[in-house]
Amino acid sequence: MSLEAVLQGKRIVVCAGAGGVGKTTCAAAIGMAAAGRGMRVLVMTIDPARRLAGALGLPDIGDEPHRVDLTGRGMPAAGRLDALMLDAKGTFDRLVREHAPTTERAERILRNPIYRQVSGAVAGSQEYMAMERLWELHAEGGYDLIVLDTPPARNALDFLDAPGRVMRFIEGRALRLLLRPGLRAGRLGLRVLGSGTQVMMSAVERLTGLTLLEDVSEFLGAFDGMYEGFRDRAERVGELLASERTTFVLITSAEPEPIGEAEAFWQALVEHGMPFGGAVVNKVHPDHLQGRGRRGVRSRAQRQLVDAGVPEAVATRAAANLDGLQALASRDRTAIERLERLIAPQPLLCVPRLDHDVDDLDAVSAVSRHLER
Amino acid sequence: MSLLTKRLLIVTGKGGVGKSTVSAALGLALAARGRRTVIAETGGQERMIRLFELAGPAGSEPRPAAPNLEVLSIDPRHALQSELQAQLPIGGIAGRLVDTRAVAAVAQTAPALRELLALSTIRNLLAGHHDTVVLDAPATGHAIGMLEVPRTLQRIARVGPVRQRAESLVRLLEDDRQTAVVLVSTPEDLAVSETLDAWERLATTHVPCAGTIANGVLEPLFEAGDEAALAVVGDGDGPAARAAVAAAHARMAQTAAERELLRRLPSPLAELPLIQGDLPPGRAEAAELAGLLEGL
Q1: What's the gap in Å between the CA of A216 and the closest CA on chain B?
Q2: Which of B 186-225 lie inside 8 A of A, CB atoms?
Q3: In b/e form, how buried is each residue of A337-349, taking b as 16+ CB within 10 angstroms?
Q4: Do the beta carbons of residue A74 and residue A62 sit within 8 Å?
Q5: Hey, which of A166, A241, B150, B292 would disulfide with A128, CB 3.0 to 4.6 Å?
Q6: End-to-end CA distance of chain B
Q7: End-to-end alpha carbon distance in chain A
């Protein structure tokens, strides 16, 4: 099975999985493979550590697509690979400007200390903004394929629920309930709904300091009337992700923990009825015995090495090393087979651990060749 | 001043580099020195519970894990709830109210507040009967964001308990006699790059960073001259011998690449070997690593 089957008829590939498995490199490799077929491809990542920038040999990437230099890599003339590093805060600011009824209102929100504090920090805001930008770029239509490298998710639902969480935050339904009289009066009033609320209010006030609450109330007031715009957009993003133009690809290593997370993610995708394309298992330990059994390999290797004229001590070390690496390879094999059975009939692609762990364009290119095998 | 005499060690690094294992090892090393230590994990992954083979779930109360060593899980929502409860004048009704709207409202609106209260939990432990807290922090980006929260809130909240809390946390976090960030990195290109980024960013936060611990380092196995000795193996020799030579070359290449990467790590504190065997590592493995950290 190859990558071809995964990409067939797709416009968007969402790469999902745990951190530390080489997700960004794999996302870029999927992009490079597609560009190698003559497609115009964009790889989007969201990353505080500028990971994609490193992987793609770019000094820095902004919120706008940058062309990745693929000269000398045998790309067809039509093929093109762009990369973009998402700036969650920048996207949020742009959304505010777009949805605010007046420039003045937009500026008021952008200046609000609560907004400035939370626009980059609300749980799910990075994921949500990734989806927003994805939608924008998809709608602009300049690409045949967009590959989205998602932030490392502890929980699959973190990603899928992100729009909902951000919407709930912007709506601030619970807080609105709490602040309603104050909002109406344009200031924070103490004439509240009931004594219970009043008790809470004073507790919250004492905890936070009054000015914080005023800022919150101003923040929510400033967003008044903008929810519909936001909600419509979030719904359209959700529809796009669930559509048949999109496919989710799980990226994992063969280590037990990421594999476990990949399995949970797959489960969540299925439960949400999301389109699932397949899995990429990265950094797989190579099987030096090429399928021949591991049993007795240590003594067999030792004997054969000594027979070939290798000194006893060196043979012992080399045999022990082979045995150790084969143990890792067989552990990987077991985990991979389990994941393969789980996701069947969707394909599982393996990428071996590369000898030189340097995440530059050559590494992306090497991974991309393995995906094409 | 040595690392193991600090009161707060904040352990962070790229996802997947073994922060929890290193936190557990540091906790054990501190406990072995007779310091009453607590490992505080964040993110609700219950790694410490599993590592120390305690019956779950992890709670917000410290639980004994080894002599002089306790573990707890910091749940920001719970921290917020107990804080609101403490602020409320009445008991029973208050509890019910706090459970519902206030917590949801405040938690949703001010994520920074949650992080502030999570950090306050640590300060409270230090004010109590613990000598040292090892914070098994989130991955670098998130962890540094969390460390910036007290300063940010100091700017936003002009009066009140949040302001006081923020001020006292800033004092704790920025005192290099008490606090140190420890960056954990594996000898992998991306992990090292992220560590270097984090090192630079930390320099702007005023929170002192002690240095880096390299984790998952391949132990030297082959000796000089081994490669030449293995060169006698040719196509005519047995398949296991040829596989052993290929595996030896892979190992040598990886060792050399790792040495190169480790040289880039700023202010190295220690190197911990790659753990062979089943993952994730357990108590025995953490104890073994703790032995290597005792001199810090």
Answers
A1: 8
A2: 187-191, 193-194, 197-198, 221-223
A3: eebbebbeebbbb
A4: no
A5: A166
A6: 10
A7: 8
Q: Which two tokens stand for residue B286?
A: 């953490």
Residue with tokens 């940010």: B152
Of B43, B102, B244, Cβ closest to residue A204: B102
Q: Which of A169, A81, A155, A83 is nearest to A125 (CA)?
A: A169
Tell me the count of A-B CB pairs closer than 8 A.
251
- B interface test, pick of A168, A207, A215, A289 with most B CB neighbours within 10 Å: A207
Using CB atoms within 10 A of its CB, is residue A25 exposed (0-12), middle (13-18) or buried (19+)?
Answer: buried
**Closest to A18 (Cβ–Cβ): which among B16, B110, B254?**
B16
Q: How far apart are CA B211 and CA B182, in angstroms?
A: 6
Distance in angstroms (rounded) separating the CA atoms of residues B231 and A243:
56
Chain B residue at shortest CA distance from A152:
B15
Closest residue on chain A to B219 (Cα): A321
For residue B181, give how far its alpha carbon lies from the nearest alpha carbon of chain A (Å).
Answer: 18
The strand pairing partners of A262, in sequence order, are: none
Q: Is the pLDDT of residue A208 over 50?
A: yes
**Residue A197: CB atoms within 10 Å:** 18
pTM for the full predicted model: 0.76
- Of all helices (H) and strands (E), which one includes residue A16? strand A12-16
Q: Are B198 and B147 in contact (CB under 8 A)?
A: no
Question: Percentage of chain B surpassing pLDDT 90?
Answer: 54
Alpha helices in chain B (DSSP H): 19-32, 47-51, 76-87, 92-97, 103-109, 111-127, 140-156, 160-173, 189-203, 226-230, 239-262, 283-293
ipTM of the complex: 0.73
Q: Which helix (H) or strand (E) holds A54?
A: helix A51-55
Token look-up 């087979």 returns A337
User: Which residue pairs, CB below 8 angstroms and at least 24 apart, start in A352-355?
Assistant: A352/A283, A352/A284, A352/A285, A352/A286, A353/A283, A353/A284, A353/A285, A353/A286, A355/B250, A355/B253, A355/B254, A355/B257
CA A310 to chain centre: 48
Q: At what angle do helices B140-156 and B189-203 cross, to 10 degrees?
A: 20
Tell me how far apart the alpha carbons of residues A329 and A318 are, in angstroms, rounded to a whole number.
16
- What confidence tier does B195 reach under pLDDT thresholds 50, 70, 90? very high
Answer whether A210's CB lies under 8 Å from B159's CB.
yes
Please state, in angstroms and as integers, the Cα–Cα distance from residue B53 to each residue in B112, B274, B288, following that order.
33, 21, 16
Total residue length of chain B: 296
Q: What percent of chain B has pLDDT over 70?
A: 84
Q: 3-state SS string over B249-262?
A: HHHHHHHHHHHHHH
Side chain identity at residue B25, one-letter code? A
Residues of B in contact with A362 (CB under 8 A): none
Which of A184-193, B85-94, B156-165 has the least mean pLDDT?
A184-193
- Percent composition of chain A: helix, strand, coil (DSSP 3-state, to 5): 55, 15, 30
Q: What residues of chain B lie within 8 A of the CB of A262, using their CB?
A: none
Query: Counting beta carbons within 10 angstroms of the beta carbon of residue B203, is it exposed (0 to 12), middle (13 to 18) or buried (19 or more)?
Result: exposed
**Closest to B187 measured CA to CA, from B269, B295, B273:** B273
Chain B neighbors of A210, CB-CB under 8 A? 159-160
- Rounded Cα–Cα distance for residues A214 and B285 (Å): 52
